[in-house]
Design a protein that fits this description.
The protein has about 475 residues and is α/β, with parallel strands linked by helices. The protein contains 19 helices and 13 strands. The chain has a 7-stranded parallel β-sheet with strand order 3-2-1-4-5-6-7, sandwiched between helices. Strands 10-9-8-11-12-13 form a 6-stranded parallel β-sheet, sandwiched between helices. α13 links the parallel β9 and β10. It is globular. The site of uridine-5'-diphosphate (UDP) has 18 residues, from α1, α14 and α15. Keywords: Glycosyltransferase, Transferase. Belongs to the UDP-glycosyltransferase family. InterPro entries: UDP_glucos_trans (IPR002213), UDP_glycos_trans_CS (IPR035595). It holds the Pfam family UDPGT.
């Protein structure tokens, strides 16, 4: 990313929701802002700052506040609503005092006063508190534009009677309530929160999701980690609802150097790269369901048998907390026994390096947005098994719009896993689409590309807000 002239007084406080995918994505964003000459204060929760290794840069510093939950409280996916609630009611108080103190600047550390906040768009309070203190705030979403548009369309989906789902509704029925997606979006492709709601007026989750999505219209701008070549139509439909929209992704490809090195909250097992070195080109199936997905023992067994039946070597990320309460050692043994020498298991992989590796032929993924972008940039065909939230709609784009892979949603069956993995590995058409999309996305992030131009416009916007 080119350096642009920026006033040294522009100082951005970045406040991600304290979960892995949001933090790493915002660290890439921070890396871009640093390269553009801005100062960045990166706000972690105390809980995560203890886990994340901190990198140093003269214009970057880390600060933290309590997330409001007791130290031992689980912060896994099943308790995410409690975390969000605690951030809003408790962490927001500490955030307000921190911002007030940062407004005064820090002459000794060479940091000017904070002039702008980039807050995670799923934490509306972070935008409101900043604006109340007179600091302009932008909302940054780490999920896809297509899912943002689906959330924004919730009132229309309700008005058309397409939500809530009723017993016996055909999940393959098309929905018309999300603009621009009428020709391919089915009920089952709507974000998972839509599926779980039986009474939208009393469904707190749906109201929360709609609330923070629509609230981004109050921020000075909405910033999305996406590229025009992937989501042009969705971006055009979102724009009229926001004060401004910047599509600046995929950020990991805009700022490829490790941002603040300590992005990962897990220790990466680099040994798998050496294992990949010993495999033939395009021969390995990489399997990862991200940082939050949990599966049952039955689902684990279906995946395992499907992967073995597909017949290719596979590299599988099995987080210790991923399969219910099972012993991860026993699961690793099960994989080793079934996969013989063809299987490699790690608790956490250097995913971008893995996807870039010549030996990887396809990616069995939950279609989290970061993973989807990472596969898109590397041109790797995907088999998607979406778990929750935006993953349901992301996987529809993979299977039905970009056609860079196959969508296995709602099915977890060894025979289907085997069939889809084989097809993703062998289909020339899917590989060609994946490579064509990669070329387009790489153009977006190259000099003169749309994401690069948008990033420059965003830096100018922040500098202007800061003066
Ligand atoms: N990731 C990784 N190693 C792993 C699994 C995942 O580095 O073994 C990274 C991956 O590269 C991506 C992020 O974790 O950047 C997962 O984000 P995503 O949005 O795909 O899913 P989430 O974890 O939010 O469900």
């Amino acid at each position: 990313m080119d350096m642009v002239a920026a006033t040294p007084a522009a100082h951005v406080l970045m406040f991600p929701c304290p979960v892995h995918g949001h933090i790493t994505c915002m660290l890439h964003f921070a890396t871009g802002l640093l390269a553009a000459g801005l100062h960045v204060t990166f706000l972690h929760s105390d809980h995560n700052l203890r886990r994340a290794a901190a990198a140093s840069s003269p214009r970057l510093r880390y600060v933290s506040i309590p997330d409001g939950l007791p130290v031992e409280h689980p912060r896994d996916v099943g308790r995410i609503v409690e975390l969000m609630e605690s951030l809003k009611t408790k962490a927001s108080v500490a955030y307000r005092s921190l911002l007030a103190s940062l407004l005064l600047g820090d002459a000794t550390g060479g940091f000017p006063p904070v002039t702008c906040v980039v807050a995670d768009g799923i934490m509306s309070f972070a935008v409101d508190v900043a604006e109340e203190l007179g600091i302009p705030a932008l909302a940054f979403r780490t999920d896809s534009a297509c899912s943002f548009l689906a959330y924004l369309s919730l009132p229309r989906l309700l008005e058309l009677g397409e939500l809530p789902f009723k017993d016996g509704d055909d999940l393959d029925e098309p929905v018309r309530g999300v603009p621009g997606m009428e020709s391919f979006l089915r009920r089952r492709d709507l974000p998972s929160q839509c599926r779980d709601c039986s009474d939208p007026d009393n469904d707190p989750l749906l109201q929360i999701v709609y609330g923070f999505t629509a609230h981004s219209g109050n921020a000075r701008a909405l910033v999305l980690n996406t590229a025009a070549s992937m989501e042009r139509a969705a971006l055009a439909h979102i724009a009229p609802h926001m004060r401004d929209v910047f599509a600046i992704g995929p950020l990991h490809a805009m700022s490829p150097t490790a941002p603040a090195a300590g992005g990962s909250l897990w220790r990466e097992d680099d040994g798998c790269l050496a294992w990949l070195d010993g495999q033939a080109d395009g021969s390995v199936v990489y399997v990862s369901l991200g940082s939050l997905t949990v599966i049952s023992l039955e689902q684990f067994t279906e995946f395992l048998h499907g992967l073995v039946a597909a017949g290719y070597p596979f590299l599988w990320v099995l987080r210790p907390d991923m399969v219910g309460a099972s012993q991860s050692a026993a699961l690793r043994e099960a994989v080793a026994a079934a996969g013989k020498s063809k299987a490699r298991v790690v608790e956490w992989a250097p995913q971008r390096g893995v996807l870039r590796h010549r030996a990887v032929g396809c990616f069995l993924t939950h279609a989290g947005w970061n993973s989807t972008l990472e596969a898109a940039v590397e041109g790797v065909p995907m088999v998607c098994w979406p778990f929750f939230t935006d993953q349901q709609i992301n996987s529809r784009f993979v299977g039905g719009v970009w056609r860079t892979g196959l969508d296995m949603k709602d099915v977890c069956d060894a025979a289907v896993v085997a069939r889809m993995v084989r097809e993703a590995m062998e289909s020339g058409q899917i590989r060609a689409s994946a490579q064509a999309l990669a070329r387009e996305v790489r153009r977006d992030v190259a000099d003169g590309g749309s994401s690069t131009a948008e990033f420059k416009r965003l830096v100018e916007f922040i500098v202007e807000l800061s003066t």
